[in-house]
Amino acid sequence: MTVMIDGRQTAAKIRSELAKKAEVLKNQGITPCLAVILVGDDPASQVYVRNKKRAAEKIGIETKDLHLSAQTAQSELLELIDSLNDDPSVHAILVQMPLPKHLDENEVINAISPKKDADGLHPKNLGHLFMNEPQALPCTPRGIMVLLAEYDIGVAGKNVVIIGRSNLVGRPLAAMMINVDATVTVAHSKTKNLPEIAKNADILVVATGRAEMVDQSYVKKGATVIDVGINRLPDNHLVGDVDQASVTGVAAYLTPVPGGVGPMTIAMLMQQTLELAEKSK
Ligand SMILES: NC(=O)C1=CN([C@@H]2O[C@H](COP(=O)(O)OP(=O)(O)OC[C@H]3O[C@@H](n4cnc5c(N)ncnc54)[C@H](OP(=O)(O)O)[C@@H]3O)[C@@H](O)[C@H]2O)C=CC1
Ligand SMILES: Nc1nc(=O)c2c([nH]1)NC[C@@H]1CN(c3ccc(C(=O)N[C@@H](CCC(=O)O)C(=O)O)cc3)C=[N+]21
After folding, report:
1. CA-CA 20 to 30 A from 231: which of 42, 67, 88, 214?
2. What span, in angstroms and rounded, lies between the C-alpha atoms of 163 and 160?
3. What distance in angstroms lies between residue 99's CA and the mean position of ligand 2's atoms?
4. Across residues 87-114, what is the average pLDDT?
5. Domains plus CATH for the chain?
6. Ligand 1 atom closest to Cα of 257?
7. Is this complex's ipTM strictly greater than 0.85?
């Protein structure tokens, strides 16, 4: 039997706690505010923008949506970030990844004040994470850790295999898993014998951006499978990086897409915005 992990319900519970926290901040004269910069029209990013805005409104977080054209120059983007860094009404800044190819993502992330780093991707914050003294944390990996805790899925001493090594998901998740005593393997496009390595996992996390690439040949009986992927098919429906039908019955726990990691990412983004607003006092 496979238990479907309900990210939507878990996220809803977190959001209702956050709404109370936002109320407290407001009574202290602080209206938490998240600025979101989207350059161009990446489809996964657009799903994200829409759902984020809705969540923020319900919690009582203000959002500033800054949608720039795909042709925006690096200097223009850096100037926008500088002005948000200096704006005391803005507590958190998120730049949607990936950026169009002509832009330098690392330079952009570096420009965000670590104190307003909604995504926890600034090298200073990643450094704190790697030293196991976390400050702002990347939202998707954090959401995965919260989901595992919510379902009492232990991590200490477990074999965790993460497929994907992006700065946004795979790398920071590896650090978080190490910090709670997992034995971590990070796989990627150059990994050999991937199904065999994945089959060693007690907890398998898939973040490749390849629609339904992981089937039951990658999964040990009784493993937990976390599907991070958000892929929009030509017929417009969303699928993950895991072939859900194939893995069902083999995995003990599985996150659905939609309704798994995605809503948790948004809940964690809201939580971090409130935490940064609180620290700005
Ligand atoms: N649910 C959510 O909240 C979120 C979902 N996403 C989704 O998660 C997915 C991954 O996102 P992100 O990490 O940003 O993606 P990236 O494209 O930045 O990274 C993908 C990673 O997967 C690896 N990879 C690609 N193809 C294969 C393959 N065939 N076998 C093994 N490894 C492979 C790449 O390897 P290499 O490094 O060698 O190129 C790379 O490390 C996307 O679908 C994205 O939309 C992202 C963020 C949040
Ligand atoms: N700097 C940055 N940080 C990110 O965290 C980031 C990013 N850039 N760029 C794009 C990816 C993608 N991403 C999503 C998060 C939630 C959903 C989400 O809400 N998903 C719903 C979709 C439901 C639906 O609308 O059908 C679900 O999975 O249930 C989608 C996509 C964050 N990302």
Report:
1. 67
2. 10
3. 15
4. 97
5. 28-113 (3.40.50.10860), 139-261 (3.40.50.720)
6. 1
7. yes
